[in-house]
């Protein structure tokens, strides 16, 4: 496990620059990315139908996979990149339930090229709180 450090001279999480630079979409393979109501509404406004991009699980709504990858992943990359879910924007920053800590996801081969700010950590915590709240409410977007 890599420790998270707030360091300069690295790329902001939301930039996705290391992913583009290395043509990496590993995080989009067999994704279990959770979707908040605001994520779903943002994607619905693009003209997609909920059933085409989201699945309901016991943990809440998640991005749907097609042939083992996110439905929005194409040869050119993410088809909805400017509108992608908040979890995608924050990746590779994740919350490890076993460690009860925020950390970089071990499957990301380029996580050492991202910088994390206190704001990023707070955004992840806020997202987790929102997803937990929405799961209890059991509503759709």
Concise summary:
The chain is about 30% helix and about 20% strand.
Question: Can you describe this structure?
Answer:
By secondary structure, this protein is an alpha+beta fold. It has helices at 17-21, 37-44, 50-53, 86-90, 118-137; strands at residues 11-12, 54-57, 60-63, 65-66, 69-70, 73-74, 77-78, 93-96, 101-104, 114-115. The strands form 5 sheets. A two-stranded parallel ribbon has the order 1-10. The protein has a two-stranded antiparallel sheet with strand order 2-3. A two-stranded antiparallel sheet has the order 4-5. β2 and β3 form a beta hairpin. The chain is globular.
Distance between the termini: 35 Å
Question: In total, how many domains does the architecture comprise?
Answer: 1
Helix content: 25-40%
Shape: globular
Structure class: alpha+beta
Low-confidence stretches: none
Strand order of the largest sheet: 1-10
How do the SSEs run, as a string of H and E? EHHHEEEEEEHEEEH
Task: Estimate the mean pLDDT confidence.
Answer: 91
Rg: 15 Å
Walk me through the topology.
Layout: E1 11-12, H1 17-21, H2 37-44, H3 50-53, E2 54-57, E3 60-63, E4 65-66, E5 69-70, E6 73-74, E7 77-78, H4 86-90, E8 93-96, E9 101-104, E10 114-115, H5 118-137
Parallel strand pairs: 1-10
Antiparallel strand pairs: 2-3, 4-5, 6-7, 8-9
List keywords for this structure.
141 residues; globular; 10 strands; 20% strand; two-stranded parallel ribbon; two-stranded antiparallel ribbon; 30% helix; 5 helices; alpha+beta
């Amino acid at each position: 496990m890599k420790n998270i450090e707030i360091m300069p001279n690295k790329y902001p999480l939301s930039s996705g620059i290391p992913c583009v630079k290395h043509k990496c979409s590993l995080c989009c393979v067999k994704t279990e990315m959770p979707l908040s109501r605001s994520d779903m509404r943002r994607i619905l406004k693009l003209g997609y139908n909920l059933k085409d991009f989201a699945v309901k699980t016991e943990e809440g709504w998640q991005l749907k996979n097609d042939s083992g990858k996110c439905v929005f992943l194409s040869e050119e990359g993410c088809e909805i990149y400017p509108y992608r879910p908040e979890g995608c924007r924050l990746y590779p920053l994740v919350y490890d339930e076993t460690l009860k800590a925020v950390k970089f996801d071990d499957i990301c081969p380029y996580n050492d090229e991202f910088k994390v700010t206190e704001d990023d950590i707070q955004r992840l915590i806020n997202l987790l709180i929102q997803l937990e709240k929405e799961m209890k409410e059991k509503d759709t977007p």
